[in-house]
From TrEMBL, chains A, B:
The keyword Disulfide bond applies. Keywords: Copper, Disulfide bond, Metal-binding, Oxidoreductase, Signal, TPQ. It comes from Eleusine coracana subsp. coracana. Contains 1 topaquinone per subunit. InterPro entries: Cu_Am_Ox_Cu-bd, Cu_Am_ox_TPQ-bd, Cu_amine_oxidase, Cu_amine_oxidase_C, Cu_amine_oxidase_C_sf, Cu_amine_oxidase_N-reg, Cu_amine_oxidase_N2, Cu_amine_oxidase_N3. Residues 135-234 form the Copper amine oxidase N3-terminal domain. It holds the Pfam family Cu_amine_oxidN2. The modification 2',4',5'-topaquinone is found at residue 426. Belongs to the copper/topaquinone oxidase family. This is Amine oxidase. Residues 1-25 form the signal peptide. Its EC number is 1.4.3.-.
Length: 699, 699
């Protein structure tokens, strides 16, 4: 047999990606590209030079792309698609930024034009004065705040009384939430919690329980202090997760390391600036300080017509709501809104090549504005890789032909776009997985460290009352909590105008009597589909565990040859928890959208953030539930799916000191979108694909 | 940098596996090993020589291992584990077979000792006369039956009237189910449906609709015939799925083929006969004509003590219930019990290396008894492979230390044991995935061909009444149906005696008033865990969509150092549908267990098959619901979990002519089983793992 050598194409691929990026960068950015460092710098100059905001100091809390109007972007994309093969580009759209800055104890909203980054201009200015809530906390003010306690006498005394060395103490900033009243909304405050970091990287496992501090973030001063109760600080032993610090490596056998090799190269992934083209998919990967990964303009090639068809205009994680379930003074307020309060993009850190993402991954860097407005570079923030999981795309073995066995199998290769958000103690691995079948699968994997409470308990037998958690180690209670990851998905199924269809599974009785419409058979029951087309937003709220059925987004104007409406449907894969907090409880009012998994709203460019724009100390006066209460028409409109993937997390000892990944997922699956299986004609792998003789050398 | 060459270890690994198998085969079989060809031959001789069954012809419908009593197997396994390192083996246990044979219109049950395969002996004999139901259909009688229609004059006329050439016609045998009355239960009959296979391998897509035939399988004669209605036979065009027959390969870009290379070899997977050892796992892989893969004696190593701890005694798919939802004469009875009527092992065919399983897979062959009792060899029936999906086992990035970013990541490698069952038109990919975290994940992936109905409709606009399905092509309705895959999982969590615990999530109000037990905070609500320990089987039935919570199997006699009961919990990942048929409907009576996803029963070695032993034409007088109705005690007992993974399948055009894989899954996850994360000390991949320079050549 011929012994053909294939060179591993990985280095070439990365080079190619880099070149493409450069080639694209030489002309103008895609209208949905995140702000470049130069553009962020220009935004900063314009804001600081503007007479509209006189007060100083001025701090930047959010700087992001103010994307052009949807029709303009769609027109650009259509032109881009048409002209791409001729290597000419459509005219650039204006480049604008949306800014939230704090100055003079007020939140300022500015729109800045940076189309020409050497002469940026402020287009509009408003003060967010009337409504409650504050912008995302900056990283810098959190660093400043945690420097306060070691110099604060009452805290020094609290630490001394616990026999802890101040050098070992590390503090963190926790949003206060909102619990009624007006006072809290007038001051931008946060709580601070402190931990003992000596002897472990896992300081979350060693809380200085019982101490509550409130810091005024605008004044940068501790304004409230209480040392209510003193519990033992859990010991450091057994808490560290770092290699070499967690004890000797496992003695037993372990899986062998593996590397994916693409003998024919990975020419399948083309990265052109922020646009990714792979197999039948094309999409734009953006980045935002608050949302993290922003996916836009996802379209899929119709194999029968060769036409590229739209699926998703824009999708991102709108919020991550994490309420804890202990009502005591030190815990009741812990009801985090990670995107709005902390910023998912701000808390995304460089991915580790080879472990966070496999060896065949390519990476995107990210840029955000620091508190001073200057661009901050974050390397390897998003990775893209072809996934070879050993799955099957479709198959059949036919044993029905006498003396003949027919087997046809097509292996599955998918494309994953991954970001990891380490929002304090928890790590969220957020995957977008594109399948050649036309599906998009969203996977949320939880890992990282538990948020634990110091306790006198050292054994479960001592616990007589509700401890609100699991005793995972001596003096260490892991508190019950939820995770609600809410996606904003502006589906444009084969076009902008869509409807939301609920196909409920409904049991019917068969009378057996044709004169009453029955079938003359002894079958007594069957189910059929009761189709409901949602008219208004009230019809768009669905508790997916309450009734079985399929939920679809269809384009009533686009039908298959058979006359079925082109659609995509939502398929949940676990993690369908919804909030069970009382509707009148304050955290539930702030995140009231978490009571059902599905909401559908008409597209509105200002409706992005499920708990409202100003999530910190929000009161529930803005956000998804408020918008949806207007009960606008959603039939035959440009509509948006809001899907919340939820978990009730009862911790177990295995989750300590670092939690093995727990995943939930959902899928958007083409459903009468194509005339038939779009990968029916997928290429059969060459005979050699399973008989490769591969060898590797360390570079 | 040093340029070290690693040879790909794949060929060596397969050789090693083969050698180990041989080495083990030289002594005696493991007591749970499936019957060997020699043992099947011995069973046949003993049965045919026995004077207990005089009637002829005698046909074998089931021949399987009659496994030794559980305490004997556990004692063997304990001795085996203790002696393994000294290379001596424990004493063999008796080898016995359970046989169901048909002779003289009766079902005979025989137990045959084959400990010495040269002198086998029948230990017991019984006639299944009283109860209803019949054994699994043999492949041979189905082949014989489908040869009848082309010689049956009324059918010849029906085919002629439809303008179809008889050479193109192919028929298949469909179980009749049971729809009341006694008559049906006295004769072993089946229905036959015929299709037009000319011009396509996908004959299921071209039904000769309107014709119903009943064949008496013991007489091997057509006993009923009706040609009720004539609809157009759907056209062949667009139905074939074979490469080269489905049209030109896709013109657009496609994913690049990939190969997993294990630069340090795959020494992690050790196969010793039917025992697999990998990382911290050890288990036995068996095979059964009815169940397919049978997994036994799964145990996991405790990293802190070095002790191997039991998790699962025995697990397999007990039944696959697939009811269709059209009450008309030609469809009402299609309510398949694929395991009991057809046999999952009988309908598992050779896996395709490189596509069904990746290039690093090893394979097990399988043997079953043909209708004549002779052993039939089925190659590559089960595969085992390490899965490198690009997943993360655990990770954390810590940004809380000033001026320092800590990131620790452990990539996930899992072990998959896969079988594919092609039960007629559908293909079920059945995966057991073992994780180093101690989890076992069960994945069911549906693919294959839809069962469709001929119809005059050529466009959805013509459909005015309930069509019971989706028009997926001209004259082709894909009928609504369900898939219920029921697992029998005899969990032995850290020992034989377990309890079933339901930890329900329960909302509590906080009064805010300490005098009434409230916390003096403004938080108004929280949830806590209401623990219920199931006392009897009635408490063991759970509709998992009705109330949120965790379902656990715990060993009340084994506690962690913290005092928590050692447990495993059930985590569902989609596909949680339960049957919505009326309780009094006949198919629902036969598969009444399908109304809830979870049942828990005390272990009873005879309770294996959810719809009862004799599933063909069963009436619901045997099976899981009947056993459970005895309401036996399940607290602190040896208990069994029955979990049904279910899907309501509304077909869409993409599912035609072959369906892209749709998966559902569930996980058994250690929950206070270990003292802490068992892979905390997992090895960090070497620096080189992501910087391999690999090349491949075709062998």
């Amino acid at each position: 047999m011929a012994r053909t050598q294939f060179a591993a194409m990985l280095p070439l691929f990365l080079l190619l990606a880099a070149l493409c990026g450069t080639a694209s960068g030489a002309s103008h950015p895609h209208p949905l590209d995140p702000l470049s460092p130069a553009e962020i710098t220009a935004v900063r100059s314009a804001v600081l030079a503007s007479p509209l905001v006189a007060a100083r100091p001025l701090t930047f809390h959010y700087v992001g792309l103010d994307e052009p109007d949807k029709p303009d972007v769609l027109a650009y994309a259509a032109r881009h698609s048409a002209t791409r093969r001729r290597m000419v580009e459509p005219d650039a759209l204006p480049r604008r930024a949306f800014v939230i800055a704090r100055a003079g104890r007020a939140s300022h909203e500015l729109r800045v034009d940076v189309t020409n980054s050497s002469s940026p201009s402020v287009l509009s200015h408003a003060v967010h004065a009337a409504g409650p809530g504050f912008p995302t906390l900056t990283l810098e003010e959190q660093f400043d705040a945690v420097a306060l306690p070691p110099k604060y006498a009452p805290f020094v005394e609290s630490v001394r009384r616990r026999g802890v060395a101040m050098d070992d103490v590390l503090c963190a900033v926790f949003p206060v939430g909102w619990f009624g009243g007006e006072a809290s909304a007038s001051k931008r405050v946060a709580k601070m919690l402190c931990f003992v970091a000596g002897g472990t990287a896992n300081f979350y496992a060693r809380p200085i329980e019982g101490v509550t501090m409130v810091v005024d973030l605008d004044e940068m001063a501790i304004v409230e202090y209480r040392d209510r109760v003193r519990y033992p600080v859990p010991k450091a032993e057994g808490t560290d997760y770092r290699a070499g610090k967690a004890g000797a490596p496992l003695a037993g056998p372990e899986p062998a390391p593996g590397v994916v090799v693409q003998p024919e190269g990975s020419s399948g992934v083309h990265i052109d600036g922020h646009v990714v083209r792979w197999a039948n998919w094309e999409f734009h990967v953006g980045f935002d300080m608050r949302a993290g990964t922003v996916m836009s303009l996802a379209s899929v090639l119709d194999p029968d017509t060769g036409v590229r068809r739209r699926v998703l205009y824009r999708g991102f994680v709108s919020e991550v709501f994490v309420p804890y379930m202990d009502p005591v003074e030190e815990w009741y307020y812990r009801t985090f809104l990670d995107a709005g309060e902390y910023g998912l993009g701000l808390w995304a850190f460089p991915l580790q090549p080879g472990t966070d993402c496999p060896s065949n991954a390519a990476y995107f860097d990210g840029y955000y504005a620091g508190q001073d407005g200057k661009p901050v570079h974050n390397e390897n923030m998003i990775c893209v890789f072809e996934r070879y999981a050993g799955d099957v795309a479709w198959r059949h073995t036919e044993a029905g032909f006498p003396g003949q066995l027919i087997t046809e199998v097509r292996p599955d290769v998918t494309l994953v776009v991954r970001m990891v958000v380490s929002a304090g103690n928890y790590d969220y691995i957020l995957d977008w997985e594109f399948k050649t079948s036309g599906s998009i699968r969203f996977v949320v994997s939880l890992t990282g460290l538990l948020e634990v409470k110091g306790t006198p308990y050292t054994h479960a037998d001592q616990i007589k009352a509700d401890a609100h958690g699991t005793l995972v180690a001596e003096n260490t209670l892991a508190i019950y909590h939820d995770h609600y990851v809410t996606y904003h998905l502006d589906l444009d199924v084969d076009g902008t105008t869509n409807s939301f269809v609920k196909n409920f599974i409904t049991t019917k009785r068969n009378s057996g009597n044709p004169t009453t419409g029955g079938a003359p058979t002894p079958r007594r029951s069957y189910w059929t589909v009761r189709r409901e087309v949602a008219e208004t937003e009230a019809d768009g709220r669905v508790d997916i565990d309450s009734k079985p059925g399929d939920l679809l987004f269809v384009n009533p104007g686009k039908k298959t040859r058979m006359g079925n409406e082109a659609g995509y449907r939502l398929v949940s894969s676990g993690a369908t928890a919804a909030s069970v907090l009382a509707a009148d409880d304050f955290p539930q009012r702030r995140a009231s959208y978490s009571r059902t998994q599905v909401w559908v709203t008409p597209y509105n460019r200002s409706e992005k953030w499920a708990p409202g724009v100003y999530a910190d100390q929000s009161t529930g006066e803005d956000g998804l539930a408020v918008w949806s209460a207007r009960n606008r028409r959603i039939r035959n409109e440009d509509i948006v799916l809001w899907y919340t993937l939820g978990l009730h997390h009862i911790p177990y000892q295995e989750d300590f000191p670092v939690m093995p990944t727990l995943s939930g997922a959902f899928e958007l699956r083409p459903s009468n979108f194509f005339e038939r299986n779009p990968i029916l004609r997928a290429r059969v792998p060459s005979d050699g694909a399973h008989s490769q003789n591969c060898s590797c050398s360390v570079r």
